[in-house]
Structures are given as structure tokens and as C-alpha cells.
Amino acid sequence: AEPAVEAMLNGIVNSLKKGEEVSIAGLGIFSVKQRAAREARNPRTGEAIQVPAMKVPKFRAAKALKDAVK
Questions:
Q1: Are 57 and 30 in contact (CB under 8 A)?
Q2: Model pTM score
Q3: What digits encode the pLDDT tens for the residues 37-51?
Q4: How confident is the model at residue 56 (pLDDT cuts 50, 70, 90)?
Q5: Closest-CA residue to 57 (of 4, 5, 21)
Q6: Biggest distance spanned by C-alpha atoms of the chain
Q7: What is the pLDDT of residue 9?
Q8: DSSP of 49-62
Q9: What is the DSSP string of the chain?
């Protein structure tokens, strides 16, 4: 089972790198979101730092998954 799960995860990661969405029926949708650059604070020192723009993975759960968890 481990090789099958690893192959699925590699497929999802490769698709996300290309900017594609991955939809798995009954589970949800994996996509990539662009996060804007922003200014944040270092919690230890309080110093302002610049956080660059970046792409982050996003997951939206399917209705079937949400209903199963309730």
C-alpha cells in the first residue's frame, strides 16, 4: 500500500507544481494559491520583517468528507 500512496502523493505534488488543480471525488480539491508579499513581526524581538510573495498549497474538503466528519 505504501508505494501506491507515495505514487498518488507524487502525482498530486507534480500537478500542483505545474499550477494544476487535483480533484479527488469524495475527498476534496488540492490547488495552489498565490500569497501576496507582506510585512510581519518577529515575535521574539518585535522587529518588522518582509515576507516575500509565495505559492502555497490549498485544500478544500468535499461535501462527502465534511458530512462524514460531523
A1: yes
A2: 0.77
A3: 999 999 999 999 999
A4: very high
A5: 21
A6: 47
A7: 95
A8: EEEPPEEEEEEEE-
A9: -HHHHHHHHHHHHHHHHTT--EEETTTEEEEEEEEPPEEEE-TTT--EEEEPPEEEEEEEE-HHHHHHH-
